Amino acid sequence: MPSSPHRLSSFVEYPADSPFPLENLPWSIISTKSDHADKRAAVALGGHVVDLAALTSLHHLFDAQSAHPPPFDAATAARLFAQPTLNDYISLPSATHRAFRSFLQHLFSSHCALLRDDPSARHQVLVPRDDVTLHLPVKVGDYTDFCASREHTINAGRIIFNVDDRPLDENWLQLPIAYHGRSSSVVVSGTPITRPCGISKMRVPGAKPHFGPSKVVDYELEVAFIIGGGTEGKPNDLGEPIPLQEAEQRIFGLLIMNDWSARDIQGYEMVPLGPFAGKNFGTTVSPWIVETSALEPFRVPSPAQDPTPLPHLDQRGEGKQWDISLAVDVKASDSDKWTTTTETNLKYLYWTASQMVVHHAACGCNLNAGDMLGSGTISGPASDPNPAACLLEKTWGGRNAFKLEGGGERTYIQDGDTVRMTAQATRADGLTIGFGDCTGQLVSARHAA
């Protein structure tokens, strides 16, 4: 168990470097083998999950007169946590989220006897993580994908246009560019992704458009921001902007996201309206949502922005990112060895999550609890050893193949390959905040005319 004076201590045993300590408590939706249809809310704690629906049956824990009361009664908790999505809970005010998080940290602390000294209750609410199935934690109402990494945008532009010194477009430095994605194809980690079919055209003289399976399937390592209820527990009204000082309160938490991309389909369709079929065939997210409160120890200044953004986006040098290490591993179907293809960090992102929220709502667009904002591909600086957060960059448009640990090589993802994304924030005293895995296997196309 953690021994640092700056660490929380729980009666639930777990290693000091567990990705799911009491300081984390990430959220998901679970079911068990015995009641697979019964989906309900849970948080992770060490090697267990806390079944929050089961917790609500212990009414004495929700006593409003206790020394550390929860922000709602047992009946309200039962209604919130027996649902197959977290949408109703995350739509509550951000102060309520913080209060319930504090309640859970007290309840499972080593100095609280309510569960510590009640083996029957502990058995009821603590379920081994290996015994549960994890589901998509929210019903994603709308999904917007940004392009907030300076390094990725520069690299992709130079690859696509084959111009080694191509600069950033002027508008990219004035606003966080985005497109509207497809929420219906957002899936939880472990869901197979089918190679998409679409229209593409080879970049050679005399080539004609053709329909068929994409030949250039890529991953994009991103972080997704899940919109919550904000300070008032309600969405901004249609026509109502969100000021910069309130924007981060709109974000409930973060998860890992793989923005699967069919580069050949995407490349042919993007002009003049942007990505469509090259993107909407599948977006994989990790099952655990890490609350922004859990990530507060890992705040760092965001990169300097030059030119200074327009006033409604200007953070006046006080912009913040999160110091979260990100990685991608790829494994072929005929191998048991993983090849690390990307190592980067969320702190490199040029535009902040707050600026994304502000820009999204500046026109009067209303953001609802459960909406998802993708960060865009998070590539690192060229000085890092493995900074490319997609294979378009890593192979420089397919020109430079890379070796797999188990033999063979790749330029893009082949049928049967599995892509695994991971993220964690680590402090000097060993505190680790993990996100779980974001994994998907590419399977063969179902149809080609």
UniProtKB/TrEMBL annotation:
Top EC category: hydrolase
Statement: the UniProt record of this protein carries the keyword rRNA processing: no
Classification via SUPFAM superfamilies: FAH, Fumarylacetoacetate hydrolase, FAH, N-terminal domain
Binding-site residues, Mg(2+): 259, 279, 283
Leader sequence segment: none
One BP annotation, GO: homogentisate catabolic process
Official protein name in the record: Fumarylacetoacetase
Source taxonomy: Eukaryota, Fungi, Dikarya, Basidiomycota, Ustilaginomycotina
